[in-house]
Amino acid sequence: MKLLTFRYLWIAIACLGIAELAAHAQSADPGQNLSICMNQLGVCDHSLLSKSEAAQVAAVEHQSNVADCRRSATACDRSKLSPAEDKALAVVRHQHNVSACMEDWEPCDYSSLTQGEANKVAAAVRERNVANCSHGWSSCDRSQLTESEAKVVALAVHGQNLEDCMDGLQSCELSLLTAQEAAAVASSTRERNTRNCMEGFGHCDRAALSAVETDRAAAAEHQRNLSDCKAAGKCATTRS
Q1: Bond from prior residue into 30 cis (ω within 30 degrees of 0)
Q2: Residue 95's domain spans which residues?
Q3: pTM for the whole thing?
């Protein structure tokens, strides 16, 4: 058994050695090396390239570095850029910074903005704050609102609260409604409660129903129970 084990071990070692030799032979293949260099699929052996191949690979590597610099990748080496490329890169990065400041992204370098760009960014920040306040979001800074903006926000918040009340949401604040709005909300709440009682769906407050509505809700419940009996063969016992 020990002899067989040692034999298998030596076979495994031999196989690994053959694999390493094959890999070395492949890496030493000029055609495969050129493909690796051109497509940047691994370590490029520049010593195996001809003069024309080296020029092609250098062009590919240069364009790859330009792309890395444009997307601010860590692999970017600005020292390898031409003066024109470096100038174009500065323009691209400046535009990216302007966009970041306009959208409130990080990082944003306000100090590098022109006066015109800074004015546009300030306007965008103000518009975004008005929108945040209008939606009732925590990022709202009411202290930054102008008098006219505060009125716009107040109308938007009031309208949103009215919608919440009409939909029966917990965020509704009835105290903020006008008398006319409160009456409309009460009517909507009554209709919704009646519908829930009739359909057997959602919250139903039977105490809020009128005598006629109570009878209609009871008849609807009886009909649903009868349908369940026919479908399932069993039903709840009800008094006639």
Answers
A1: no
A2: 35-41+50-113
A3: 0.55
